[in-house]
Specification:
Blueprint (H helix, E strand, L loop, with lengths): L1 H31 L49 E4 L7 E2 L11 E4 L2 E4 L6 E7 L2 E8 L14 E5 L3 E5 L34 E8 L2 E2 L5 E3 L2 E6 L2 E8 L19 E5 L7 E9 L5
Antiparallel strand pairs: 1-15, 2-5, 3-4, 4-15, 5-14, 6-9, 6-15, 7-8, 7-14, 9-12, 10-11, 12-13
The structure holds magnesium ion (MG).
Magnesium ion binds next to strand 7 and strand 8.
């Protein structure tokens, strides 16, 4: 009996010491953790979620940015991008938009993918909605043909919305069909084309159209494009799916669809293609 009392007392004392130790450890760990700069006594921002300079607001994920390309060598992708073509293989691409796994008839040459005669367009196996897309391209040299016949291809987002690829260096065509145009809709703000054979870049920020449960359009697609680092489409509302000699209209489609590199009979070269899926901002 006495032993049990002593044992109980011992257990109580031990647990008090342990709890105190634990509390001290937590306190020490807390003290060691650097306090994030910021405030929680400042005015509340819109939406009532975070204070101005809120110290509790989560910081965004850290990524490693890519590097810029040069005329000799493509750049590298940011660490959180899906690399669709790195100069080595066409494993992300197929010959139709449907899931067939048949590789496109494009060849790899000096780190670029090139559409040869009769190649057909190339489609990504993966589907995308809202994206940031980086593409580098180079039109054939010496330049052959005129207007729409010279270095024609296209970055066709969701296989519906075309950012025109064309050799528009010293080559005039209808404005809404030159390089950087939303084909058949809006010309680029400026012509930032480089000479044929030189490497050029498109950086595209695209917001997919939204359709309601009745399959009717709720929100049209929007696109921003930089051509060789120059803004050429500034948050443009897209009128509809790419059309030739017709006014573009929307037809219901899935929220995510493959990207497409258009084959238009000309051996355009592509390299360093990467995409980042864009989540909803807070
Ligand atoms: Mg085209």
């Amino acid at each position: 009996m006495l032993n049990r009392v002593v044992l109980n007392k011992f257990a109580i004392v031990a647990s008090i010491i342990l709890s105190a130790g634990l509390a001290l450890a937590v306190f020490a760990a807390d003290a060691a953790k650097p306090k994030k700069e910021g405030y929680t006594d400042t005015p509340m921002g819109p939406g009532g979620k975070w204070h101005v300079h809120d110290s509790e607001r989560p910081n965004p994920p850290i990524i490693t940015p890519g590097t810029c390309g040069t005329q000799d060598k493509g750049g590298t992708a940011p660490s959180d991008a899906i690399v669709l073509f790195d100069g080595r293989d066409l494993s992300h691409w197929q010959s139709t938009a449907a899931v067939t796994d048949v590789p496109p008839k494009w060849k790899i040459e000096d780190g670029s993918m090139v559409a040869e005669k009769g190649a057909g367009s190339a489609f990504t196996k993966e589907s995308f909605g809202d994206i940031q897309l980086h593409v580098e391209w180079s039109s054939p040299t010496p330049a052959k043909g005129d207007g729409q016949g010279r270095g024609n291809s296209g970055v066709i987002i969701m296989r519906n919305y075309e950012i025109q690829v064309l050799d528009s260096y010293d080559n005039v065509t209808y404005a809404d069909g030159q390089a950087g145009a939303i084909y058949g809709q809006y010309p680029p703000l400026v012509n930032a084309c480089r000479k044929p054979g030189e490497w050029q870049s498109y950086d595209i920020i695209f917001e997919a159209p939204k359709f309601g449960a009745d399959q009717k359009l709720i929100k049209p697609a929007q696109v921003t494009v930089l051509h060789n680092g120059v803004l050429i489409q500034n948050h443009r509302e897209i009128i509809g799916a790419m059309a030739y000699k017709k006014l573009a209209t929307y037809s219901f489609h899935e929220p995510e669809l493959p990207l497409m590199l258009q084959f238009h009979g000309n051996p355009i070269r592509y390299r360093n293609i990467w995409v980042r899926k864009l989540g909803q901002a807070e």
